[in-house]
Sequence to fold (274 residues):
Amino acid sequence: MTARPLTAFVLGGGGILGATQVGMIRALADGGIRPDLVLGTSIGALNGAFVAADPTPAGAERLAQVWDSVIADRVFVENPVRQVARFARSQTHLFSSGPLRRVVDEYLPVDFFDELAVPFQCVAACIEDSSAQWFTSGELVGPVAASCSVPGLFPPVEIGGRHYLDGGLVHSIPVGRAVELGVTRMFVLQVGRVEQPLSPPRWPWEVGTVAFEIARRHRFVHEMEAMPDSVETHVLPSGAASSPNLPVRHVRTSRMRERAQQAYEASAEYLSLL
Fold:
């Protein structure tokens, strides 16, 4: 008798484009695909915690409602004067991590890793030793906030005397971690960026963006090329023609719903062919 595959959902980073993953999560849940393990980085850590808490269609719908509420209530939108004042004080970041922590505290139905329905891990970059720190136990709010702490936007998160920044700095889409943990089937939930090739920068402000994007993608590309033949791997499609960097203040609920729906339709079609 053939053993049931050990299935992982691997959720990458991508900021507000994480709404794309909401559609993919719905498609997987509606298709009856349940993970044995969930791995997340950056916004994928936030979405991944919700999946691990409830990997059912009802849980997917709850996550969609959370995204609607967070965007409609403009949770991450702050008076520009306060942003400037905070940057003047800190010299390092524009936003407080308070709103992100409140999203986890108020909407996630559990508080600790061991209360989740499915094992979950998230990653953050440790400042002190430049390592990738995987969190697997204890309270959820600190590790999830750490994994989402984009440099320059959010402050480092202190956990256990060490300071952490965005997990995308060390694992933009952590497929290699899934292989290390022995999964035999994985579904990769990316936000659309890896589907489109980069172009050489034409303007000074594009140089940093392109360089950062190369750094983000390099490890993922390498790990995908080295993927063992024994691991069944599915990179779910976003259904979007482009994946721009969107300032939080310009995000509209309707646009995020549209992006999630595009990903749902594209991913559902892909999964129907398996």
Summary: The longest strand covers residues 120-126. Residues 204-225 form the longest helix (22 residues). The mean pLDDT is 88.
